Amino acid sequence: MKYDAIIIGGGLSGLAAGIRLAYYNKKVCIIEKHSLLGGLNSYYYQKGHYFDVGLHAMTNYIKDTRSARKTPLAKLLRQLRIPLGDLYLAPQKFSRIAFPNVSLDFTNDSDSLIQQISDKFPASVDDFLKLKKKVDSYNELDLTAKPLSARKIVSEIIKDSLLIEMIFCPLMYYGSAEENDMEFGQFCIMFKSIFEQGFCRPEKGMKAIIKLLEKKYLECNGELIKNCGVRKINTSNNTAESVELSDGRIFKTEKILSSAGYLETLKLLDNSPPKKNDYSSGQLSFVETIFMLDKNKVDKAFATAPSITFYNSINKFHYCKPDTFVGMQSGVICLPHCFNYEKESENPMIRITNIADCTKWVNYNKEDYLKNKNTTKKAQKKILNNYLPNFENQIIFEDMFTPKTIIKYTGHINGAVYGMPQKKKDGTTPVKNLYICGTDQGFLGIVGSMLSGISMANYHIMM
Questions:
Q1: Which of 442, 447, 455, 446 minimizes the C-alpha distance to 186?
Q2: CA 344, CA 348: separation in Å to the nearest integer?
Q3: Is 361 in a helix, a strand, or coil?
Q4: Are 272 and 259 contacting, i.e. CB atoms less than 8 angstroms apart?
Q5: Rg (CA), the chain
Q6: What are the 10-residue block averages of pLDDT along the chain, 463 residues in total?
Q7: Bridge partners, residue 30, by sequence
């Protein structure tokens, strides 16, 4: 048996790539080591409670595809032939960037942030409009563009240092693998995704989207293997010839598209990859605690709370691996039930996310690991009480994921959710018919990862 393409990983980028290839009658097989698809942007059940994991919300919200044909989500849906209505997207109410003495609220109407900046930073509103114009005119999809420092470019346009920090805070949390900076193309992607198009959530959860993608893929005669990972990629003359699965089966293939990560994929090669490697593993991992609330006790004040709050406790925003096992100085607070759903959410909850040092989590023994989880949870509750007073008496269940969890379900080195800082925009590797998609290709987030799978499938497999 020989495939036109084998896709390593059944995350969102792998699923999207598989659908695209299967539509055009390519013989393709997705290999996923876990029982559930979706990677970190998946779902799970715990003691009867349903939880989405991964990003708190989708970006790139649109109301309809006709008036937003050129937006990433509209392009994605055309490529996959999926109607927008099948996603059941509910827009955010509003989100907030909260710093010590000032906050900025924004909605999915891009003018809302401009008005906030005009009110809070009147001397900088013209600078912000100049930045917006530069972002809108920049071609962030150029796969050959040289990396540029977003910090450098933004600071040349905006002079108010506090406003700069507040702009970077949500963009970095939602899409930067680099500590304390972003590549300018990625900055533009996230700026448009969050500030111009905005947040939303699938009303039926990630499970519905993943099941929809899986159904589409199988209907196009794509093959799918779950609960079995790839042990090795067999090569000859710098060409990938086959993959060996963890159960010993060997599948021959013309091309391989891996969503496992660039360095993680090189580790699968039967021959050692080239000694010279200019790429380093990412350092940014996260801890998140989810608090399920009693829907009969949820404080009415929550109805007017932000859908997402990006908080920072000092005026300087530090986006880097913390000195301790979790950095509480900044974080993301999401209320998944505070979106504009057609029906009231059955599962009100709070999700709080903070940057973590992976090495400190994986090197602890089980007893200390559990102690650190409890210590972290207490610190997160203290933070939450500043934004959502009296929430603790509403908790009926709580759960936490750590860098150790991320490594288990993604295989990313250091539990780096956003992969390595230097992205491989063209998706190539040292092996001529082995390509990557997903996090390390450079398109991040739920919509971005699927576009990455589609673009790399189009660019390398369909050619």
A1: 442
A2: 9
A3: helix
A4: no
A5: 22
A6: 94 97 97 92 87 87 89 95 95 97 96 98 98 94 87 98 98 95 94 96 93 97 97 95 96 97 94 65 94 86 91 96 95 95 82 95 87 95 93 93 91 93 94 96 91 96 86
A7: 7, 224
